[in-house]
TrEMBL record:
This is GNAT family N-acetyltransferase. It holds the Pfam family Acetyltransf_1. It comes from the Bacteria. Coiled coil: none annotated. InterPro entries: Acyl_CoA_acyltransferase, GNAT_dom. It comes from Streptomyces endophyticus. Residues 4-151 form the N-acetyltransferase domain.
């Protein structure tokens, strides 16, 4: 087999990216019985989960972007517009995402990453536990990973 030089790209090649994901998933499934059992089931798919709060004009007031995979909810983003903060919208968004993930997608747990100046306290108040802290990511900031059992 002839090896070619490394090829570095900054543009997304969707076909190659999907191939890479597929090959890695196959290798992971072969190495782990648990991941192997997930193959071909609904829990093996990254399924988006979005919860929005819109005003009467349809403008975004608050939102949560997440996905479910392997019986876990992964919260990517949760945001509430400044004038609406403190009114419980963030709590309601998170609770609804957790409910949907648990009741409709059989998720057993949830995870989120947040920076020290964002919302680690918010997630702790909602039952999340800190499982890791990465200092200086990005420089001068700590990133927290928090998890919570659902149900």
């Amino acid at each position: 087999m002839v090896m070619r030089m490394f090829r570095i790209e900054t543009e997304v090649d969707k076909e190659r990216s999907l191939l890479l994901r597929s090959l890695l998933r196959e290798a992971n499934a072969a190495a782990s019985p648990v991941l192997g059992e997930l193959r071909g089931t609904p829990a093996d798919q990254h399924v988006p989960l979005h919860v929005w709060v819109l005003d009467e004009d349809g403008a975004l007031v608050a939102g949560l972007d997440a996905y479910t995979w392997a019986f876990w909810l992964h919260v990517d983003m949760l945001w509430v517009a400044e004038p609406h903060r403190g009114a419980g919208l963030g709590s309601r968004l998170l609770a609804e995402a957790e409910r949907l993930a648990h009741e409709e997608r059989e998720c057993r747990a949830s995870r989120v990453e947040t920076w020290d100046f964002q919302a680690p306290g918010f997630y702790r108040l909602h039952g999340y536990d800190v499982v890791s802290v990465i200092p200086d990511y990005p420089p001068g900031i700590k990133e927290f990973t928090l998890t919570k059992r659902l149900g």
